[in-house]
Amino acid sequence: MTKAPTVDDVARAAGVSRQTVSNVLNAPDIVRAATRERVQAVIDDLGYRPHTAARQLRTRRSSTIGVHLDPYAGGISGVVLDRFVHALTERASERGMRMLLYAARTPEEEIARMGELLDGGEIDATIVTGTFHGDPRTGWLTARALPFVSFGRPWGEDDVAAPAHLWVDVDGAAGTAASTRHALGAAGPRIAFLGWPAGSGTGDERERGWRETMTAHGLAAPRWTVEEHVPAARAVVADALAAGAEVDAIVCASDSLAIGAHLAAVAADRHDLLVVGFDNTPAVEALGISSVEQLPEKVAAGALDLLMGPTGSVVAPRPAASGSAHVLVEPRLIVR
Amino acid sequence: MTKAPTVDDVARAAGVSRQTVSNVLNAPDIVRAATRERVQAVIDDLGYRPHTAARQLRTRRSSTIGVHLDPYAGGISGVVLDRFVHALTERASERGMRMLLYAARTPEEEIARMGELLDGGEIDATIVTGTFHGDPRTGWLTARALPFVSFGRPWGEDDVAAPAHLWVDVDGAAGTAASTRHALGAAGPRIAFLGWPAGSGTGDERERGWRETMTAHGLAAPRWTVEEHVPAARAVVADALAAGAEVDAIVCASDSLAIGAHLAAVAADRHDLLVVGFDNTPAVEALGISSVEQLPEKVAAGALDLLMGPTGSVVAPRPAASGSAHVLVEPRLIVR
Q1: Domain B64-169+296-329, CATH homologous superfamily name and number
Q2: Is A98 in CB contact (< 8 Å) with chain B?
Q3: Which residues in chain B have Cβ-Cβ distances shorter than 8 Å to A283?
Q4: So where are chain B's domains?
Q5: Maximum CA pair distance of chain A?
Q6: How far is CA B208 from the centre of its chain?
C-alpha cells in the first residue's frame, strides 16, 4: 500500500522543521533560497500535496485542540482567561497544533459542542476551563475516555495523589500566602482578608493561604466577604474603616476586590493602607496596586505538556497518565 | 452518483436546525423526546455518519474561519480585541461556523499561517485585525482573491466609496465627537485632547472627531500627545496642569491615557476636571470614568455578515461585493 506523503515526510527528507516546509509553500520569501530549493525539490520528488482534510481522514488526527470561550462577561479578571487562550495559541502553534474555539452558554451546551467536534474528528482533544464541584463536563469526558485537560483542578479529595483527569491549575493558596507574608513585612501584623463568600473552590483556596499564614504567625485579623464587584468591595471596606477596623493591610481574592479596597482607603485618607490584589490585571497595574500574577503562559504550557506528553507531536488519549497527571503553577507576587 | 448524506440533509428531512441534529448526536438529553426520535429516525434512514473531514473533502468547505491572535501584550485596551474574538466565536457558532486561532509575530508570519490554513482547506476565510497603511496582509489576500474581511479599514483614499476589500471598523471620529459634545455640555468650553503621536490611522481619526467638533463650536484648546502608557499620560497631564493649563475636560484617545489623566487630576486636586476615555474597558468602569464603547459584538456581527452574505450559511469568496463592502459601527459614549 502506498501512502500519500505528509508534511512530516517532506520535513524529514529535507532535514527541516514542519514550519519551514509550510513557509516554503506559503511564504517562500521568508525562507533562505538554498533551503527553499532543497525543500521544493523534496516536495516535487515525493509529490506532496498539502490538503489537510485528506491527511485528517488518513490519520484520524486533526492536529487541532478545542477550547471553550465564555461569552464576554466584563469584569476585571476575564483578562486572565484571555491571556491563557493567547498563550495556548502561541504554544500550540510552536508544536504544529491549532486552537479551535467554540461557544456555549451552559455546561450541557458545552458537552454538546465538545461531542460534536470530537466525534466529527475536528479536534483531537479539548481544554476545559473553570472547573467546579460536580462538573458534568469533566465527568462526561472521563466516562467517554476522551482526551482532555482542565484549567482548574477536579475539586475532589484525591486531586493531587490520584486525580480523576489531567489538570493544570494555579496554586491560589501559595499566592495569597505570598501576599500575606509581604504585607506582614511591609505594613504590620493586622492583615485583613477580603474574599468571596465561602463555597467556591478557587475562593476558598485563596482564603486558606492568608489564614494559614496568619495562624502560623500567631495572628488574627478580620475576614470580609463580598461578591466580585468593585463598588460592593469599596462599600464593605469603607464601612469597616468607618466602624474603626484597625488594619495595616488588606489581602484580596481578586483585583476587582483590591480596586474597591484601594478606592475606599483613598477616600478615607488611609494612604498608608497596603492593598494586594490577585490576577495582576492591567487595571491594578495602572493604579500601582501590588498583585499576584497567575502566569497564564505557564498554565498554557503545562496544559499542552500534559495533553501531548514529552514526545510532543501528537495528542493521544491519556486520561490520568501516571506521574504527570497534573501541573500546579506557583504564582508570583508583583510588588508595586 | 450517490453522495454521502450531510448534516444539512438530516436537518432538512427532519425539519430542524443543524444545531438540533448535533444536539441529538451529542447531547440527546437536552432535546425534547419527540424531536430526538424524529431526528434519529432520519439519521438511521439516510445512514448519516458525522465525520467532518470526509465532508470537508467532499464539499471543500471546512465551515471554519481563521483569526489571528496577537501575543498578549498587556495594556488596558487589549480587551477590546479579546471581546471581538469572544463575540466572533458566539456569532459564528450560531451560524454553524467555527473559529480557528493562529499565532504569528509579524505580518509575514501571519501571511504564511493564512496561506497554510487556506491552502490546506482548514479554513474557508480569514479575519485580519489591526490593519495599517500599506498592510502586506490585505494586499496578499486581495492579490490571491482569498475570502477575508478586516477589522480595520484599508486606510486608503477610497475606503468608503470603493474599498479595496471587505472591512468592518468602528467610527473613531464619531466616538470622540460624542465625547467632546458631552464634555462641552457637562464641563465647559475648554476641552483638551490627549492622543497618540500623529500618523496612526486610528489615532488620527479619534483626534479628528474632537478637532472638528471644537471647530464647529468656534473653540480651540490644547492638544497633547503621548505614547499609550498610563504613567507617561499621567506625567504629561500633571506637567500641563502644573504649568497652569486652563481646561475643563480632557477627551482621550484611549482608556490608558484617560486613567493617566484621571490620576494626574486627582493628584492635583482637580476633582472637577472631566476625563473621557475610549474603549470602555473594565479598568475605567472600576474607576468610574466615562468612555466610548466600541461595541465589539456589533463589529463581529458585521464581519460575519460581510463574509457570509445575507443567505448566511456558506462562506463564499466575495472580495468587495458591491453595495455591502464595509460596515462602520457607530460607537456609544458611556457616561459615568
Answers
A1: Response regulator (3.40.50.2300)
A2: yes
A3: 76, 281-283, 286
A4: 7-59, 64-169+296-329, 172-293
A5: 83
A6: 21
Rounded to whole angstroms, the Cα distance separating A304 from A307 reads: 5
**A54 at B interface, C-beta within 8 A:** yes
pLDDT in tens, A46-60: 877 766 655 555 555
Q: Do B115 and A79 touch (CB under 8 A)?
A: no
The model's pTM: 0.78
CATH homologous superfamily of A172-293: Response regulator (3.40.50.2300)
pLDDT per residue over B294-334, tens digit each?
999 999 999 998 988 755 544 444 444 444 588 999 999 99
- Report whether CATH 1.10.260.40 matches the domain B7-59: yes
Query: From the list A29, A57, A115, which residue is nearest B57 (CB)?
Result: A57
Contact B113 A93 (CB under 8 A): yes
- CB within 8 Å: B103 and A90: yes
CATH 3.40.1260.20 fits A7-50, yes or no: no
Contact by Cβ (8 Å): B288, B274: no
Q: Which fold has domain A64-170+297-330?
A: Rossmann fold (3.40.50)
If you compute the radius of gyration of chain A from its CA atoms, what whole number of angstroms results? Answer: 24
d(CA B264, CA B243): 13
Region label for A24, one of left (φ > 0), alpha (ψ between -120 and 50) or beta (otherwise): alpha
Could you list the beta-strand ranges (E) of chain B. 64-68, 98-102, 125-129, 148-151, 167-170, 191-195, 223-225, 249-252, 274-278, 290-293, 326-329, 332-334
Residues 221-250 of B with CB under 8 A from A: 230
Q: What is the pLDDT of residues B22-70, one digit of tens each?
A: 788 777 778 888 999 999 899 888 877 766 655 555 555 778 999 988 7
Quote ipTM for the complex.
0.73
Average pLDDT value over all residues in chain B: 87
The C-alpha of A21 sits at a distance from chain B's nearest C-alpha, in angstroms, of: 10
Cβ contacts of A28 within 8 Å, gap of 6 or more: A36
Nearest CA in chain B to A111: B27
Q: What pLDDT score was predicted for residue A146?
A: 85
CATH topology match: A64-170+297-330 vs A172-293: yes
